Amino acid sequence: MTDQDHTTMHDRAMPLLDHLIELRRRLLWSLGTFVVAFFFCYHYAETIYFFLARPLETVMAQKGEALHLIYTALPEAFFTYVRVAVFGGLFLSFPMIAVQAWIFIAPGLYRNEKRAFLPFLLATPFLFILGAALAYFIIFPVAWKFFLSFQTNPAGYGGMHVELQAKVSEYLSLVMKLVLAFGVAFELPVVLTLLARVGIISYKDLRRFRRYAIVAAFVIAAILAPPDVITQIGLAVPLILLYEVSIITARWVAPQRAPHLSED
């Protein structure tokens, strides 16, 4: 019996109370990190909010207009900044939360399982940031320009016109929804590759269901994205490309399972 087997048996034999104490320690570290990140982000909530509003400001400046956001309820701006702080706090504290989860889970894994799982843990935040960046730098400018095209000229129609008066809370809700939608969507290769790594699916299955995946990508985009074609296509196309990437990565990890299966 190897030292690794001894360690694994020791972890499994650990009393339930010790596991709960360890879990409590990891949760406290995660919660403490989030609280610190929350107050840090709340201090800079205004700066963060205007960073999120920068794509709208840029598009309106191109049209010769100034960005003007309003709130119609007394506590609306305050709670909007609280939501900004929560959003930013989760974003900043995620690495620590992931590390604490890894510290709690890793002792119960075999060495080969650790090597298999760790790359997925590292790829998760990278792909989420990549998806959020795509939304912020590419989708937002195109979508905002489309939405602003419905404004009318103040000089026309006898002085009557349609003008955007965006609310701070509604704009934040839309931005957070899109950032989360694109960020989560970009986790598709991680999920599918991990499923292939543990043997639930194979790259052949993914290739066989490609046509259904394309349809599912547009359905998911229609559910997650706002009801405009531009944003939906902007989410559906990356989903389809990520599915193709998942087929490749699933094929890469498939041979790694062969020695393990042959030993069984």
From TrEMBL:
On subunit structure and binding partners, the annotation says: The Tat system comprises two distinct complexes: a TatABC complex, containing multiple copies of TatA, TatB and TatC subunits, and a separate TatA complex, containing only TatA subunits. Substrates initially bind to the TatABC complex, which probably triggers association of the separate TatA complex to form the active translocon.
| Keyword Transmembrane in record | yes
Q: Which UniProt keywords apply?
A: Cell membrane, Membrane, Protein transport, Translocation, Transmembrane, Transmembrane helix, Transport
KW Cell membrane (keyword) present: yes
Protein name as it appears in the record: Sec-independent protein translocase protein TatC
The organism encoding this protein is Candidatus Kirkpatrickella diaphorinae
The entry assigns this protein to a family as follows: Belongs to the TatC family.
The UniProt transmembrane annotation reads: 27-45, 84-105, 117-144, 178-200, 212-229
Location(s), subcellular: Cell membrane; Membrane
Please describe what this protein does.
Part of the twin-arginine translocation (Tat) system that transports large folded proteins containing a characteristic twin-arginine motif in their signal peptide across membranes. Together with TatB, TatC is part of a receptor directly interacting with Tat signal peptides.
Q: Which InterPro entries match?
A: Sec-indep_translocase_CS (IPR019820), TatC (IPR002033)
Q: How does it sit in the membrane?
A: Multi-pass membrane protein
Which HAMAP family does the record associate with it?
TatC
